[in-house]
TrEMBL record, chains A, B:
GO function terms (MF aspect): orotidine-5'-phosphate decarboxylase activity
NCBIfam families registered for this protein in UniProt: pyrF_sub2
Biochemical pathway: Pyrimidine metabolism; UMP biosynthesis via de novo pathway; UMP from orotate: step 2/2
Organism: Brumimicrobium aurantiacum
Keywords associated with the record: Decarboxylase, Lyase, Pyrimidine biosynthesis
The keyword Lyase belongs to this UniProt entry's keyword annotation: yes
Annotated Orotidine 5'-phosphate decarboxylase domain residues: 16-252
Enzyme class: lyase
The name this protein goes by in its record: Orotidine 5'-phosphate decarboxylase
Lineage: Bacteria, Pseudomonadati, Bacteroidota, Flavobacteriia, Flavobacteriales
Active-site feature positions: 93 (proton donor)
Amino acid sequence: MTREKLIQEIKSTKSFLCVGLDTDMDRIPKHLLDTEDPIFEFNKAIIDATKDHCVAYKPNIAFYECLGPKGWESLKKTIDYIPKNKFTIADAKRGDIGNTSRYYAKTFFEYMDFDAVTIAPYMGEDSITPFLEYKDKWVIVLALTSNKGALDFQFMTDLSGEKLYENVLKKTSKWGSAEQLMYVVGATRSEGIQSVRNIVPNYFFLVPGIGAQGGSLNDTAQYGWNDDCGLLVNSSRGILYASEGEDFASKAQEKAIEVQQEMEVILKDKGLI
Amino acid sequence: MTREKLIQEIKSTKSFLCVGLDTDMDRIPKHLLDTEDPIFEFNKAIIDATKDHCVAYKPNIAFYECLGPKGWESLKKTIDYIPKNKFTIADAKRGDIGNTSRYYAKTFFEYMDFDAVTIAPYMGEDSITPFLEYKDKWVIVLALTSNKGALDFQFMTDLSGEKLYENVLKKTSKWGSAEQLMYVVGATRSEGIQSVRNIVPNYFFLVPGIGAQGGSLNDTAQYGWNDDCGLLVNSSRGILYASEGEDFASKAQEKAIEVQQEMEVILKDKGLI
């Protein structure tokens, strides 16, 4: 998907919500466990219920991988089921030497038709550029994450006062343009979002950490906004497990609408719609 | 596998060779393509041919993942086929928040019975510790990698003169002992190996980069050795694709024996056997 189409989708849906498909066999409603593919049945219902209120879906690959080949089948069916006007993100956090990165790109961009994949930057340029060889496909680089462990290395400061995550932003933004590269920027660090926005004004951010992890949507919009919105805000558990009963899909829809309406207010406030 | 058993295996095999199973559909001999599971048939033959000359196997997960559910089946069959006295490494380079890391651990330590998994440290402590909750299972943290991109971030230097990879070693070695944690240290940077050894004297290193990437076995042993050997030196393409004909397994065996014999000389020189 092109950046232009993504922005168009944000405007027409009046939303910059990304629904995280962290689909967990231990948490999906019991009545689905008797179906042939409970993971896919759950995702299908969630997608049907939320697709008018979000612009992106982000399956967390760990949740599928741990189920073996069957999990990969559920994932493939899910990605094939998501409407083509939605931006799809494989939250895989891969990162390897060039030779191996090419195979990861093949997995997520050829075997499965994802629009984007999340990448850890530790191994540098050749862990990122093989993904950028695919036209209209995206790499989403971990910059400033939302977890506690983010403090361990991402804030390491060099001799010029630059932090590791700032260094990651400066270098990686030379390897890929804002038409193909985004950044993971956790919502739990508002001051961080602003510092990231200052370094890469044009890039989109994928923002996890709203809801279960405690981040705020308004703070994220205040500090992370750019002229094209520039934000995909993810919510996983808050939507997926709004109810653990047979009404899970309608409750998920209610939650998605609730977030979408907050986003609509922000989009209007900012003058994008 | 315990550290003690691994050291015992090194002594009895007179080898610290790890065979990297980067099994590539485009490079395996043509006559295998007619079998039901070419990847597994290839791996089976390679394992049979090399198991007396190595102590570890390291499937590179990217090569299996890109084949979809069938690739995961080949991987599962491969890990089940490897003799139990061999140390097995899922070269997956995962790294995510704690909640997700638990699922990755489940994949590699429960669904598949790997001894170890490689992990990228960018997201910090909670991306590593969930794996350490498994008894006798290992995390192998990327410290100093063998690729060109290693120079992009791993050598970033903080105010006290400490490099990122040194910081990673110091912090992560507090999270896990040498009984459960190892480091990836590329053979292409001999001076780097020595600096890593100085910081973590007791830990094992998984050393890629010998052969195709240009690293030297003798330099690695000179700079990386510790009292228990402390090295697992990986070779992938040099062994797997020693021949692309029907004699691939016997040629792979010849190559493995060649490396094992060099290692035996080193092990004797160092007085470990």
